[in-house]
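Appendix B, example 12.
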Amino acid sequence: MQRKMAIKIIVSVRSPILLLIILLVCGSWGFFGHKKINRLAVFTLPAEMIGFYKKNIQYIEEAAVNPDRRRYIQPDEAPRHFIDLDAYGDSTSAKLPRFWREAVAQRGDDSLKAHGVLPWNMFRVFMQLKDAFMVKDPERILKLSTDLGHYVGDAHVPLHTTKNYDGQFTGQNGIHAFWESRLPELFSKDYLFFTGKANYIPNVQRTAWQVVYRTNQSLDSVLRLEKQLSEKWSDKKFNFETQGKQTVKVFSSDYSKAYHELLNGMVERQMRASILMTGSLWYTAWVDAGQPDLKELIDYKPSAEEIKRRENELKKWKAAQRPQERSHEFED
């Protein structure tokens, strides 16, 4: 099932349980994983930031799934969650322009979006978060922080870096939700999520691309190991579970455990890397914005006029910058 076709199917779904299942298949990390990543990223922050983020931790956790919800009502949202590196071939993908405007000039907007824009989008949201820190807009800081955490989580899922995103080309349909939703929900209670403190990232744009390429290196294992295991288990890999008032077919707990063990900690490592990278990007945006005092924003709500004035000042400043420093931008 192609990704755009999935969007059409979602619109016609009326059963809440069925809708949830489809969201998990088409989404990323599941609701559980994304919320976990955003929540734990808060605790990687330095003292100057953590008070503001802890005050709003419930929002940061709950809103972590908002980008997935937007995928089914905003046409341009879906491409922001993935990049099909294999669509470009081994030699050409490494040569993809890292600046969005240069990429559009070379490949075309529609072509790029057809194969996903995840690393460009990570950088775009990072820059928007930096701007939000600069104008001291607490509402926008929180929204962009939660969105950025979601996209960072997506970038750490191997199946978000390939055209074969649900194993549809290798007879492994359902592996997407299996890897990123079923496994963490079953086994993350035993994960060690201590990551240490957030780090400053000198080149966010380059790092975004490094993340997706590093994640893609695990793709072969994700598919190959499940394929080998499936051949041994055959139909025994499934059973039925009751979810609410519905009985649904799922990968069995025993099969999930066997696959999880073959992956040798991969899911745990990717979740932990997502947490640290999310916190590090929040921290880097704050530093690059001049380290504004977030304690002042904990109980502060600026007026719309005040925010508009600050935004206009920022636009004037950015207009004076060199064009290449603004070439990350693309339409919301």
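The beta strands are 238-243, 246-251. Residues 4-26 have pLDDT under 50 and may be disordered.
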